[in-house]
Structures are given as C-alpha cells and as structure tokens.
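Worked problem 6 (solution included).
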Amino acid sequence: MNKARDLARDSITEPRWVRVTLTLVALTFLVLFLVLPLASVFTEALRQGVLAYARSVVEPDALAAIRLTLTVAAIAVPVNVLFGLTASWCIAKFEFRFKALLITLIDLPFSVSPVISGLVYVLLFGAQGLFGKFLMAHGIQIIFHVSALVLATIFVTFPFVARELIPLMQEQGTDEEEAATVLGASGLQTFFRVTLPNVKWGLLYGVLLCNARAMGEFGAVSVVSGHIRGMTNTMPLHVEILYNEYNFVGAFAVASLLALLALVTLVMKSLVEWRFGDELATGGRRH
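Solution. The predicted structure is:
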C-alpha cells in the first residue's frame, strides 16, 4: 500500500529542484514587490523618530483626511452591501430578460479606469456638465464636495460584494427558498432566515474587499475632489500632496496608516478564509 502511494505521489510530483526553484522565485517576487515596499514605507515614516511620526499623523489636515476617508467608506460600503445583496439575489434566484446585461454592467468598474469614472461625474455634475446649471440654480454642489467622493467611491467598489455573493447564491440553488415558500414564509422571511444566513461569511468577505478598496481609492476621487485641504482630501490624496511638497515624513506617516489598514484587512480576510473556507466554497453550508 505504501509503495503504491509513493509511486502515485512520484507520478504527479515535480522534481525537487523544480519545486525549490519555483518556491524561491515566488518568495523573491513577494519580497521585492510586497515586503520591501511595505518596509520602506514604515522606515521612511519613522526616519525622524516617533514624535515626528505622531505629529504628522495628528496634524489637522491629516486628521481631516482620515475622518473623510472613514466617512466615505462608511457611506459607500453599506450602499454596496445593499446593492450586492439585491443584485446577487436577483441574478442567482430568478430568471429574467437582460440578466446577462446586468452581470456585464456589474463588472463594468473592473474594466473602466477609475480616472475615467471620475471624469464621467465631472461631465455630469460639474459646472459645465449635463446637470451642472440645474444644480447650481438650486444651490446643490456635488463636484469638489464630499458627495462626489462618495459617488466615485461607490462606482469603483460596487462589484466587490455582488461578485462574492453571486456564485455563492448560484451554488445554493433555490431548493431551500422553495421549501420555505411552500411552508408559508414570505419573500422577506425567506431572504433573512434562509438566504442571508447561508451567505453571511461570503458577505463579510466582500465587505472587507470593498472597504479596503474604498479607503485606498485614488484615481476617481482625485478627479472629483478638487484637492481642497481639510475638506475634500482623502488619505491617498493627502499623501500625494505631502509628497509633492517634499514633506516625506508626513507623506509616509499617513501612507503607513493606509498600509496598516490594508494589513488589518488582509489578516481579517485570511481569518475568514481559514475559519469559514468550507462555507465559502460550498455556498455557506457546512458538510
């Protein structure tokens, strides 16, 4: 039995030198393009000491950028959760015309440059845009305002939750929902008591990815923000301004906060994958 197992293993396993080489190449790539850049961010941020780092983080414009980043994410992520749940439930559980078109539109932000998406909002809501005169006449400002940041962030992040939930719900099928309906459950009862519990960890996974992108978005918000210090600068925009002003300690200090947020998100994502990997792979059901 052991000999047969060894023969089977040898027949599907590459030579040792191949495995070692591939492993070294992968580790070298990770060190050069991930570990070293992250280490350099924290090294530069602390180059002049902890006090200089702390002063850069608690500086008024930096605090305003942090608050704005958290505010935009706090608005954009729940909106995308609502959209993702609605769209995925509709796509996975029902058949209707233009279903393929809806799936294609959900993937649109993946294929459109964030800068282009920001420019679209300028063309729509800017002073010379399609709705610009109407908005100005009614005292409504969107471009160069927090509203524009929220809209741009929602656009670039709305596929994440939906794209995590659609395959999970499709994997589940409709048997449980049909059974609940036969037993007298309403549509909302079926959703909250059957569908949602089965995808809760996939939903959390999508929320983590959506939140990470929302906090780190640069291109779209750069176009619509106006770069107004203390008002429309998110953390990535504030980092750019400080770096262009040769305030490297301040720029890397704020960048280190973004890096920490990314690392926390990565750890949480890994924990979800490790703890609930089977549920994510089987549509939320344990076997």
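Discussion: The mean pLDDT is 84.
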